[in-house]
C-alpha cells in the first residue's frame, strides 16, 4: 500500500512508492550529512577495489587459458612515458656530444687526469642540523673537507679554494634551521648550479639503516639525465667522485632524476646468495630541484646564466621536463 503506513508487499519488498531511488547522476558529494557522506564514500571505494580486483583476476585467468596466444600486456600510462619530446635529448652515438664531452670542463676527471678535491661550506652561522648534514655529506664524497664561512663572502672564498687546489665548492644554505639550498660550483672556471633542497633526512632519521659508511670510494649511478642540460648536471655530480670505485666497499651513491627532481640515496649492497642481493640505506638522503645553471664561478649579480627555471613560462605542461 502507498498510504505511508509502512505496509510491505507480499514478496517481502517495500512497495514501489516507499522505495528511495537515486537519480543516475547522483554523487556521494551531494549527501549533506558529513558522517553519512564519509560512510558512503568508504563503501564506494571498497566496491571500486572489489571490481578492480575481480577484473584483474578475470584477465589473469583469460591469459592463462590462452597461454602463448595471449596478447601482450598493456603498458600503463604514466607521466614519464607520456613525456613531451625534447629536441635536446642526447643520443649516446652523437659525434657532437662525444666531442663536447672530450673538451668540456669535466673531461680531465673522466680521463683520470685530475683527482677531485671538494670544499663543503655553509651559509653564515649554520645551526646544528645543517652542520650535521655537512659532516655526513663529507663521509659520502671522498676527499671532501668541511669549513665554516665565518662571515666570508663566496667571492672571497672561491679564490682561496683555487689557490688550495680545490676542484669543487659545495655550499649548503638553510632557512629556519633547515637545509633548503645547495650551490655546486666547479673550479676554477665553472659552471655553477643552484638547487633547491628538500626532504633532507639524516642518518639517525632513516629506519633500518646500515652501519656507518666506510672510507671506500663508492660507485656512482646516474639515472634519467637525458637532455643536454641533464647531461651537464649529471657530469657535474659524477666529477665529485674519483673515477676508480673500490667495489670491495659495496657502496653506491645514486642520483635519480624523475620529473626534474633529483633524488639522492646512499646504499650498501649485500650478497645474500648467488642470486639474491639486498641493500641497506646508509644516508643521508635529500632531493634537489635545479633552479639555475651559470657559466663561470658563483656571481649572482654579473654572472652569465645558461639556464634559469621560470615557472610561469616553462611549467606549461605536466609532461614537459628539462633534465
Automatic annotation (TrEMBL):
The keyword rRNA processing applies. Residues 116-299 form the Brix domain. One of its GO terms (biological process) is maturation of LSU-rRNA. This is Ribosome production factor 1. It comes from the Eukaryota. Residues 1-20, 47-74 are annotated as: Disordered. Residues 62-71 have a biased composition (Basic and acidic residues). GO terms for cellular component: nucleolus; preribosome, large subunit precursor. The keyword rRNA processing applies. Pfam families: Brix (PF04427). The gene is Rpf1. One of its GO terms (molecular function) is rRNA primary transcript binding.
Amino acid at each position: 500500500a502507498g498510504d505511508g503506513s509502512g505496509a510491505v508487499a507480499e514478496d517481502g519488498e517495500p512497495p514501489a512508492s516507499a522505495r528511495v531511488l537515486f537519480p543516475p547522476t547522483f554523487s556521494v558529494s551531494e549527501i549533506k550529512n558529513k558522517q553519512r557522506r564519509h560512510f558512503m564514500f568508504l563503501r564506494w571505494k571498497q566496491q571500486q577495489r572489489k571490481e578492480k580486483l575481480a577484473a584483474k583476476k578475470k584477465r589473469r585467468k583469460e591469459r592463462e587459458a590462452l597461454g602463448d596466444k595471449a596478447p601482450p600486456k598493456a603498458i600503463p600510462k604514466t607521466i614519464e612515458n607520456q613525456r613531451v619530446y625534447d629536441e635536446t635529448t642526447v643520443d649516446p652515438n652523437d659525434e657532437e656530444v662525444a666531442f663536447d664531452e672530450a673538451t668540456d670542463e669535466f673531461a680531465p676527471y673522466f680521463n683520470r687526469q685530475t683527482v677531485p678535491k671538494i670544499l663543503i661550506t655553509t651559509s653564515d652561522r649554520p645551526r646544528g642540523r645543517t652542520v650535521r648534514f655537512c659532516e655526513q655529506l663529507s663521509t659520502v664524497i671522498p676527499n671532501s673537507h668541511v669549513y665554516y664561512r665565518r662571515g666570508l663572502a663566496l667571492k672571497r672564498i672561491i679564490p682561496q679554494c683555487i689557490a688550495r687546489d680545490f676542484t669543487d665548492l659545495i655550499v649548503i644554505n638553510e632557512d629556519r634551521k633547515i637545509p633548503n639550498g645547495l650551490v655546486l660550483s666547479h673550479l676554477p672556471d665553472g659552471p655553477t648550479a643552484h638547487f633547491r633542497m628538500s626532504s633532507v633526512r639524516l642518518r639517525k632519521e632513516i629506519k633500518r639503516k646500515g652501519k656507518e659508511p666506510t672510507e671506500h670510494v663508492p660507485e656512482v649511478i646516474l639515472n634519467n639525465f637525458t637532455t643536454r642540460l641533464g647531461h651537464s648536471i649529471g657530469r657535474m655530480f659524477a666529477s665529485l667522485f674519483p673515477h676508480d670505485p673500490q667495489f670491495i666497499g659495496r657502496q653506491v651513491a645514486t642520483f635519480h632524476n624523475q620529473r626534474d627532481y633529483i633524488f639522492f640515496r646512499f646504499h650498501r649492497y649485500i650478497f645474500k646468495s648467488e642470486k639474491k642481493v639486498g641493500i641497506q640505506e646508509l644516508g643521508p638522503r635529500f632531493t634537489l630541484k635545479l633552479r639555475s645553471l651559470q657559466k663561470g664561478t658563483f656571481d649572482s649579480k654579473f654572472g652569465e646564466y645558461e639556464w634559469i627555471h621560470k615557472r610561469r613560462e616553462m611549467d606549461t605542461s605536466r609532461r614537459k621536463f628539462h633534465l
